[in-house]
Amino acid sequence: xxxxxIPPSNRSKVKSSVQRGLRQKLLDTYPGYEPFIEEIMPKKAxxxxxxxxxxxxxxxxxTTPLFFQPMDGPPIPHLRLVHQYPSAxxxxxIDRGAIRFVLSGAALMAPGLTSPGGxxxxxxxxIEAGQVVAVKAEGKEEVCLIGVLKVGxxxxxxxxxxxVMDEGHYLGDGLWRLQLD
Amino acid sequence: xAEVADPGPAEPQARHIVYCGVCTLPPEYCEFGGxxxxxxxxxxxxxxxQWNKLYSEDALNANLSALSVSAQERAAKDAAKKEAKAAQxxxxxxxxxxxxxxxxxxxxxxxxxxxxxxxxxxxxxxENKKLxxxxxxxxxxxxxxxxxxxxxxxxxxxxxxxxxxxxx
Lengths: 181, 168
Hints:
By secondary structure, chain A is α+β, with helices and mostly antiparallel strands. Chain A contains seven helices and eleven strands.
């Protein structure tokens, strides 16, 4: 999604009523952020919005990016936010061999998740297609990719082939390198 | 006042994360960034603890044993290629920097009024639009950025025009 560098663009303030709505939406989408919401997005802080290419909007407070939202999708937290509160979002894990592909912006493929180094949640905690997941890597602590799953985890297990996540926000992409000041 | 088990002001629960000063990734992922050598040196200086954890013999061996031999070879090859590419682009940048000049011109506008034109700053990683504002403040003048005609077509490289009225 953000393979290229993002040119600096204008920022504008968000209306406080809209800000409240966004906050609610974020909580609805990610109940995991509930305990931290006051810290992430204090009621007083003024949220700003930055327009990114491909009709994506990025919400920030001061110079910290919080989350971005594609035109037709749910809000997705910025990786820095994910690193700060890693427990808030369901995660899957890829094997070591897949890291270098992910970090160069390739689509996430199923074998990286089903191989011995990868990890998927068990059937009880299955993640549906269309949900946002954070992707960890084998032997690493931090999340390296976040995006919307294209295929449910159970289906990944049964099929074991094909693209699982088309485009996401990965470490070192344009959004990661974006300087806000 | 009764002493109640007050949770107190909520402790900040955010984890503090150190990002690499060279490639901006979390240090764990430096090895995939193409500037692994530099990152390692940086980490050794800045965060010795982390360095120990990531680059000690044990850690390296553990990483290697996790992959099959052929995959390892491929990954190594890929990494080498990436590193070479990064080094190359860096060298190119340095060369460009060394060769480029910042030109400061004084152009007469109206007898005793002059404009100072500065070009060539963009090579040094300065953002012209912001710089124009800063310079304007610093010298108490108007200041703006314009693209020179030659560069008009290429949008990323821009020339700068700082405009100052100087009398006398």
